[in-house]
Design goal:
- By secondary structure, the chain is α/β, with parallel strands linked by helices.
- The protein has a single domain, classed as LmbE-like (Rossmann fold).
- The strands form two sheets. The chain has a five-stranded parallel beta sheet with strand order 3-2-1-4-5, sandwiched between helices. The chain has a two-stranded antiparallel sheet with strand order 6-7.
- The chain is globular, with a radius of gyration of 16 Å.
Length: 244
Amino acid sequence: MVGQTEDLNLIDAPGTAETCWQGWPGLDELPAAEVAAWRSAVVVAAHPDDEVLGVGGTMSILAASGARLRLIAITDGEASHPGISDPPALARRRRAETGAALKCLGAEGTEVIRLGLPDTGLAGQEPELTTVLGELTAGFDVCLAPWTRDAHADHEVAGRAARRANGSTLCYPVWMWHWARPRDQRVPWHRGLRVPLGPAPAAAKQAAIACFASQLEAREPSGEPVLSPGIVAHFTRNCEVLFT
């Protein structure tokens, strides 16, 4: 989810509490996405866990319906722990966490394609990534990718590349829930769609998030995890949001 090139002013600042989002009726007023009409979906993730945080419930719903699913993992998230002595080992751990999370979602049949691009290094590879995503997202009813204004460089590159590559792309926010506020004018709410999550997909998503122990555990030297309880709370509500 997080690397070293994010917008520090937005991401490192104190965020919006989930209770603020829960008390805002605007999310319930968004039109519903027609998920039942999607017989196939390709999900683009800049880092392991992006796909589960952003659209894990949607993936669970699609898997239960028998839809064809493909996950394109752009990086292996090896930069989530700056200064770690063995980044390849962390990358292997994060790949394994993704596999466990997909099982929790009931989406273990998802085709996973790993590009192995450098975490926090996507900014210089956007043209090439656009070409690759054009090939890998072709033929699917919908492409789900990180939001192009999420305030994390890798997320934004992934989203822009997916939008250029595939005209059926919908974008899911991740960091936005931390730095934005209800009615925030920086967010295109008029282009928002809501994916309601029933009890089963919501529970599956929570179990899938718990699989990413590397992101939930305290990191040295700060002792802070990548995903604090306050951040995780944004992804345990009864809906997900996509932007057209």
